[in-house]
Amino acid sequence: MKTARETREIIDRLEAQHPDADTELHFRTAFELLVATMLSAQSTDQRVNMVTPALFTRYPDAGTLARATPSELEPQIHSTGFFRAKSKALIGMATALVAEHGGEVPASMDALVALPGVGRKTANVVLGHALGVPGLPVDRHVLRVSNRIGIAESDDPEVVEAQLCAVLPKARWTRSSDTLILHGRRICKPTPRCTECAIEDECVFARAASRPAPDRKARPATSARRRRRRS
Ligand code: SF4
Which residue segments constitute the domains of the chain, with CATH numbers given? Predict the structure, then answer.
């Protein structure tokens, strides 16, 4: 795995390639970002951004959303997918915010992940982008890209989060995640576009891919030599 210094330099270069990296979800408050991030699961930020303006007009805060019924909410979020589960989670989350936090979004990881439907990735998004608390969300893009480059080594998002946080200053956590997400969306896609990548010379995956394949013709010749020696 890359050293801390190498990791920071790689992130520097990726930030230079993606100077506009930020969350693509539209929001004005921590509550709106929490709702938008929950809706973005198994969906796209663009799709969520189409749904949220009307949703936030109708439910501007936790109190109004807590009073919503699934039959009211489901049609409004239908296009983001998994609308029944999301509706249940959103109403549960809003109800817990009202009951336990005076309707405000708490600025702590422990309190956020205790809310219905809120996992570590969602909590980190809200902490880092809306509450000024350093957070490094690890989604499927961060997981794929960081493992390919060699700045992390695990299939477990929580382990990758810990590995990256250990070598990056807290002030860089959120932007580093945004940068890796954008790199995964634009360049290091499931089929990567390595020739367009700013850190191709440093990437473990790219180096392995460019290594020459073993010379298959040599093996039968060697076996033939062994057979001749035995006979
Ligand atoms: S070189 Fe290729 S595999 Fe490596 S980070 Fe860049 S796009 Fe991804």
Answer: 4-19+138-206 (1.10.1670.10), 30-104 (1.10.340.30)
Query: What's the pLDDT tens digit per position in 85-134?
Result: 999 999 999 999 999 999 999 999 999 999 999 999 999 999 999 999 99
Tens of pLDDT along 56-67? Answer: 999 999 999 999
| Spatial contact of 152 and 163, defined as CB atoms under 8 Å apart | yes
What does the alpha-carbon distance between residue 72 and residue 116 come to, in Å, rounded to a whole number? 19
Ligand 1 neighbours by CB, cut-off 6 Å = 145, 148-149, 187-188, 192-194, 197, 199-200, 203, 205-206
Q: Answer yes or no: is pLDDT of 179 > 50.
A: yes
Pocket test for ligand 1, best of 149, 151, 196 (most atoms within 8 A of CB): 149
